[in-house]
Amino acid sequence: MLKVYTSYSCSSCKKVLSWLKEEGIIYEEINFLGKGLIQEDINFMLKYAHNGFEDIISNRSRIFQKNEENLKEMTTIELINFIINNPSILKRPILVDDVTQKLIVGYNDINLEELV
To answer: What is the model's pTM?
Structure first.
């Protein structure tokens, strides 16, 4: 099942959702700023992230820049809990497909074509 992690005001998220609808691809949308995240969501993302947290954490986010030194010292569980409590630190959108075993971050036509 394809899961798409989005936020309300993200233009890239809207583009991805529109593209998926046009292609007739079935997905589950999880608005992580509205609904929130649980540990299983983060683990699901990390399962297909080639570079671990680096693939899903936005180093341009304010929360990252404010906590960069602390983040480097956190254990995996501490970092997962930090993300759950501060979901705006994530890049967006994040698409995770357990069928193709792919994680795609952002709106990128070439990467999205791999889902079809």
So the answer is: 0.92
